[in-house]
Amino acid sequence: MTEFLDEVETLQTNVEGLKNLSESLATFNESFASWLYIMNMNSLTTDWPQAPIPESFELAKRRAEQKAIAAMEALKAKAAAREAREAETAATALAERTATTEITDVDTTYYANATTANTSTLSGNKYGTVIKKKGAKPKLTAREKKERSMEIERIISCLPLEFRGSDPNLRRNMENVIEGLFDAPAQTVKLHDLIKPPDLSQARVNKCLIALVNRKAVQKDNSTGAVLYRWQGIP
Fold first, then answer.
1. Burial (Cβ within 10 Å: 0-12, 13-18, ≥19) of residue 231
2. Which of 180, 217, 184 is nearest to 199 (CA)?
3. pLDDT tens digit string along 6-20?
4. Could you tell me what percent of the chain has a pLDDT over 90?
5. What is the mean pLDDT of residues 84-109?
6. How far, in Å, CA of 208 to CA of 205, rounded?
7. What pLDDT is stored for residue 67 in this prediction?
8. How is the chain classified by DSSP, letter by letter?
9. Per the confidence metrics, is the pTM higher than 0.70?
10. pLDDT (0 to 100) of residue 76
11. Which long-range contacts (CB under 8 A, 24 or more apart) does 205-209 make?
């Protein structure tokens, strides 16, 4: 009997445990059901404006196409700009080569004519012909020298940096070229009129004249067959 009573007490204890478990599960089920119901109601009553819709995917596709088109146009514009710069550089180089060729041709013609003229003069001297010397350059007063110096300084200040003092020799050559243009008849000269070796070589005179032509201070004219440089001035 004692053993039987012990077993009955153990069975009663287990039954009470099962009852407590059942009550706990009932409480959990009620709470979990309430939470599911709330989530369901929330999904039905809450708006999600940032959520993607079919139109959103279409809009994203159109934007991607527009960005691709814009990128292609930018690449084409860069390529066109690069080609334009290369064409401009080639045109400038061709113009400089043409100018150098024209100057060389004019110098060759001039030296040939000068040689012929000297030969004719020498032949004329044998028969007593008098040679007329070119008149000396008129002297300037102190005031005129000061005004000319200020004008030359103003002109050089409008030229590229290398003529404004970066290279003292090139600045001095530019001053001599400008003075030569000022002193020339009608302020018009040929390139060989400005050459004064060893300081003013043909290359340096040509470089100075190209800078003045680019600045539009000097006008280059070859309509007569000979290349003339006419002073225009800087406003």
1. middle
2. 180
3. 888 889 999 999 999
4. 17
5. 68
6. 5
7. 93
8. -HHHHHHHHHHHHHHHHHHHHHHHHHHHHHHHHHHHHHHHHHHHH---TTS--HHHHHHHHHHHHHHHHHHHHHHHHHHHHHHHHHHHHHHHHHHHHHHHHHHHHHHHHHHHHHHHHHHHHHHHHHTTPPPPPPPPPPPPPHHHHHHHHHHHHHHHTTS-GGGTTTSHHHHHHHHHHHHHHHHSGGGEE-HHHH-BTTTB-HHHHHHHHHHHHHTTSEEEE-TTSS-EEEE----
9. no
10. 92
11. 205/173, 205/177, 206/99, 206/100, 206/103, 207/170, 208/163, 208/170, 208/173, 208/174, 208/177, 209/177
**Helical pair 168-183 and 142-156, crossing angle rounded to 10 deg:** 120
Q: What is the pLDDT of residue 146?
A: 84
Show Cβ contacts of residue 131 under 8 Å, excluding neighbours closer than 6 positions. 121, 124, 125
Residue 34: pLDDT band by 50, 70, 90 thresholds?
Answer: very high
Query: Is the predicted pLDDT of residue 108 greater than 70, yes or no?
Result: no
Quote the CA–CA distance of 122 and 116 in Å, as a whole number. Answer: 10
In one-letter notation, the amino acid at residue 198 is: P
**Percent of the chain having pLDDT more than 70?**
80
Task: Please name which of 145, 142, 144, 204 lies closest in space to residue 172, comparing C-alpha atoms.
Answer: 204
CB 202 within 8 A of CB 107: yes
Distance between CA 76 and CA 54 in Å, rounded?
A: 34
CB of 111 closer than 8 Å to CB of 202? no
Distance set, CA 74 to CA 71, 78, 172 (Å): 5, 6, 47
